[in-house]
């Protein structure tokens, strides 16, 4: 790749950059601010990719398809992916620090979830690709002979990966790892809120021996910026996206040009169904995590809790006490359990729902406002964990995804009523079912309209299982072998014997 005059190219990562064709590229054009949500302090000035840089990245990815990468066996690719996983673990502290500064999430969460999962994603898809089998059929031919049909899986080509800010490394590598395992090349557009770990991964890719152009990163925003330039680029063969349902609609329109396939993990308005026969303390602790982990910014999180009437009062009282025990504070302090929201803008959105809940007549069990923080956190986007009761099902707060540390709890009497309420949503991502009755657990799990039903647990992940959403929560399933449908194409070979 020649170096245009407006670009500075380096081998090791600066504070923020694109990663194109195996090198860091810092454009001297438009820059945007990346701020630490815990303090409001500037983390880095990030270059915003223009159309020509996105084009550079896509071209690099296309060239790499016909280079050494395109000729590698599954074994060779799997071995490289394991080295990437090792590289993430070797640089654990760098990734951890970057993720905490970009998101404000507590170290206790990032160190146990985000960074280890970043590495695990590469190991699991290295395993999976070694176990892929395809079908074959022997047939009689009209001339009395025989033919053998067998299918092979071929990479789709250049995959655009558009990722969100809530679990940046985890969700980006969840797409990059299967894409690479299947032999594709990628151009990643991380969220503008969290540009750093995708960039750091470039150096790990180089150290692991992933050929230049296989993994590329362009920084920027969505509409009229890097995200849109990438999804509209005719050199992209498929788009995998995690984010809001509304954004998915825009990306699907871009994908229609050129009839490109999409794989979408979108929003949710997830329900927990807590039956009177549950282990109450387990249900309370599970709901505490599902409603408030990552400051409520988990797509699988619970925002609607349905509790059977005999235990309603006890459940509300216990969840209130547990929520009030969450500790806001320095994200780098191991005892901190609640970080800030991702940005002031997102806080304004979440607070508008807090206002709306009041206007719609909610009883505020706890929270409802901004968390009071002292220096240096006073300028961060902190917010109180909030629990409501008493809202009608059709209230806006009970229907729209808020993506903050809040939930509404409503009593129910009969199982059918709880299932109907849980299913009364345009979304269908996840549900958590709390009961000790095995028959009820299986029955309800088969009736809730979601991609993932957890029984007596939440966000317990086996990466070999299908992951995705029903209704407006997604298109397709990834995880295990299920992503093969998106990341590869089946080619039938018919051999006259
Ligand atoms: P978002 O949709 O605003 O942004 C996600 C990404 O899309 C960002 O990189 C953004 O720059 C990019 N983007 C925005 N508009 C675009 C466009 N027109 N063209 C191309 N790219 C565009 O989502 P977010 O705010 O980053 O994340 C929160 C949302 O993501 C929530 O709705 C949450 O439920 C959802 N989410 C879903 C899952 C899942 O697995 N289902 C996982 C995590 C987050
Ligand atoms: O665990 C995963 O693989 C996954 N995609 C989780 C999504 C979490 C949403 O915020």
Offer a few descriptive terms:
497 residues; alpha/beta; Aldehyde Dehydrogenase, Chain A, domain 1; Aldehyde Dehydrogenase, Chain A, domain 2; 2 domains; 23 strands; 22% strand; globular; binds nicotinamide-adenine-dinucleotide; binds (2E,4E)-2-amino-6-oxohexa-2,4-dienoic acid
- Indicate the mean pLDDT: 96
Anisotropy-based shape: globular
CATH fold topology of the largest domain: Aldehyde Dehydrogenase, Chain A, domain 1
The ligands found in this model are:
nicotinamide-adenine-dinucleotide, (2E,4E)-2-amino-6-oxohexa-2,4-dienoic acid
| Number of beta strands | 23
Number of helices: 16
Report on the architecture of this protein.
This protein folds into two domains: 5-266 and 474-496, 3-Layer(aba) Sandwich (Aldehyde Dehydrogenase, Chain A, domain 1); 270-461, Aldehyde Dehydrogenase, Chain A, domain 2, CATH 3.40.309. The chain has 16 helices and 23 strands. Helix 10 (280-292) links the parallel strand 13 (270-274) and strand 14. Helix 3 (74-90) runs antiparallel to helix 5, helix 4 crosses helix 5 and helix 5 runs parallel beside helix 6. With 497 residues, the protein is of the alpha/beta class. The model has no long low-confidence stretch (mean pLDDT 96). The strands form six sheets. A seven-stranded mixed beta sheet has the order 15-16-17-14-13-19-20, sandwiched between helices. A six-stranded mixed beta sheet has the order 10-9-8-11-12-22, sandwiched between helices. It has a three-stranded antiparallel beta sheet with strand order 1-3-2, sandwiched between helices. The protein is globular, with a radius of gyration of 24 Å. Nicotinamide-adenine-dinucleotide binds at residues 162-166, 171, 189, 191-192, 221-223, 227-228, 231, 242-244, 247, 250-251, 265-268, 299, 401, 403, 429, 469, 473-474.
